[in-house]
Amino acid sequence: MHDAIAAFVHDGDTVVIEGFTHLICFAAGHEIIRQRRRDLTLARLTPDLIYDQMIAAGCARKLVFSWAGNPGAGSLHAFRRAVEQGAIEIEEYSHFGMVARLAAAAARLPFGTLRDYMGTDLPAANPAIRTVTCPYTGEILATVPALHPDVTIVHAQRADAEGNAQIWGLLGVQKEAAFAARHVIVVVEELVDAAVIRADPNRTIVPGLIVDAVVVEPWGAHPSYAQGYYDRDNDFYVAWEPISREPAALARYLDEFVYGVPDRAGYLGAHPGLVDRLRAGERWAAGVNYGY
Amino acid sequence: MAVAAARELRDGEVVFVGIGLPNLACNLARATHAPNLVLVYESGAIGAVPERLPVSIGDPALVTGSLMVSSMADVFQCLLQNGRIEVGFLGAAQVDRYANLNTTVIGDYDRPRVRLPGSGGAAEIAIHARRTIVVATLGPRAFPAAVDFVTSPGHRYRGQSRRTLRMPGAGPVKVITDRAILEPDAESGELVLTTLYPGVTVDTVQHGVGWPLAIRTPLARAEPPTARELDLLRHTLDPRKLYLKD
Questions:
Q1: What letter does residue B222 receive in the DSSP assignment?
Q2: A60 DSSP 8-state letter
Q3: Which of these, A94, A181, B181, B210, could form a disulfide with A149 (CB 3.0-4.6 Å)?
């Protein structure tokens, strides 16, 4: 992880650590904090706790997003303070807008088109949301610019050494964000043989041909989750509310669990009992016959 | 509120489920009069049958046993924008007289007094769902005459109707509060009082909004929650009171 971040995440970069609630690579975010990256443009649909932490750690100059809350638990207070105090630049869309930005970039088109934003104040707040007149029907449609991250970090359940990454459960916009990016780091719970990947090719979401680095980091998504490996740590998400609300508490959290550990293995060591509490149960799917 | 919201759903409908009370209402409907409700979560879970009450719309329990896990691109393009979502559920920090919703900022956008989470899928849900149900707690600050910021469109934006603005969906058809139900007037697009909950007076509701609230006559009276609905809510669906207040 250390080497991948050192090689592919630089000051001033546009960084996407993807995953919609599922497979969010907190381990990568923490390593970026430890390596003290600065002036990053952080982009995700939902900043989740990871960008709240990275904003608090001073990594971010700008945030590109569509929903910045902590569902069922409260707010992302470091994000809120930064915006209310004018300490961070924001570029705000809706979920569909963010999806369209990444999908357009993944297809190397200059903008995404969607039927959206009429009757809202979002275009007034974000001049990057514009319109185009359909050349066939004359309908006016909204446009959002393509988003090309300098680096996208995809967390997956498994990949082979070439980076052919398989994901099951919620897919978020991992695929689009990977294809849109100049560099891709794949982080996995498990490294597997190419034969395992080839036995079920429909499950491959990111092909190794676009991947620059593969990192093996079990429990790398905690407190987010990996379907089939471990549950979301809902208790931690709730506990984040008072930590995030109080800058001194947040600073103590970063000192103990980010700066105070060398890596994710160290982080797990600092959470005794975590693995037993969250380890996933079993709900296996039957395989399918790819023969012909 | 959960019971009133659940009763708005018809069996077999395709519903876009948001976090919070909508989750609870949809699962209550599924357990009572609408067992064939198809739950779609903007996270990509379709036909979800969660075995535990999801705390977020990305809960792993939404995936296990669902019909389909779609990419978010497909949910927004092929289901929502394609007009396949019959009901969208939305909550908001502010709801105004035209049912415009604000989940973005209180105060000025550039230096807000309070920065709220933002749209998420709410803007497109309000535009595209065939009809939208809004769930919000009554109060003059939550129901101002005009929201500070329009995140999700209601029935009038700067005097223009949904039809003029070419919005495909019908928009908010009901605003379900903790005291009463409001509905848009067909002519003016303004929310009017249509249904009172048991024991609530018209006065209470009028004091709960920041504009002179008109009343549709005859005013309806909501049926109270049945014992079965309450039992399901309190003991099966939300025993930890994540969403229920009493």
A1: P
A2: E
A3: A181
Q: Is B112 on the interface with A (CB under 8 A)?
A: yes
What is the pairing mode between strands A40-43 and A14-17? parallel
B217: amino acid identity, one letter? T
Q: How far is CA A135 from CA A8, A128, A132, B89, B168, in A?
A: 40, 21, 9, 34, 20
Phi, psi angle pair for A115, to nearest 5°: -90, 95
Domain with CATH 3.40.1080.10 in chain A: 2-96+148-277
Which residue is it, tokens 């956008």?
A: B109
User: Tens digit of pLDDT for each residue in B182-220?
Assistant: 999 999 999 999 999 999 999 999 999 999 999 999 999
Q: Which residue has the tokens 């699962």?
A: B27
Tokens standing for A35? Answer: 């390596």
Q: What is the pLDDT of residues A175-184, one digit of tens each?
A: 999 999 999 9
The torsion of the CA quartet B7, B10, B13, B15, rounded to 10 degrees, works out to -10
Q: How far is the C-alpha of A182 from the C-alpha of A164, rounded, in Å? A: 17
> Does B21 lie at the interface with A, CB-CB under 8 angstroms?
no
CB contact under 8 A, B81 and A114: yes
Count Cβ atoms within 10 A of the Cβ of residue B240 and give its class: 0-12 exposed, 13-18 middle, 19 or more buried: exposed
Query: Which of A86, A92, A283 is closest, CB to CB, to B118?
Result: A92
Cβ atoms of residues A99 and A173 within 8 Å: yes
Distance of alpha carbon B170 from alpha carbon A25, whole angstroms: 39
Judged by CB atoms closer than 8 Å, whether chains meet at A118 and B123 is answered as no
With a cut of 70, say whether residue B245 has pLDDT above it.
no
One-letter amino acid of B83? G
Q: Taking CB atoms and an 8 Å limit, are A67 and B60 in contact across chains?
A: no
Q: What domains can you pick out in chain B, each with its CATH number?
A: 2-237 (3.40.1080.10)
Contact assignment for A67 to B117 by CB distance below 8 Å = yes
Residues of B in contact with A20 (CB under 8 A): 43-44, 58, 72
Please check whether the domain covering A2-96+148-277 is classified as CATH 3.30.70.580: no
What ipTM does the predicted assembly reach?
0.95
Active-site residue list of B = 42
Tell me if chain A has a CB within 8 Å of the CB of B124.
yes
pTM equals 0.96
Task: Count Cβ neighbours within 10 Å for each residue of B153-166 and write b for 16 or more, e otherwise.
Answer: bbbbbeeeebeebe
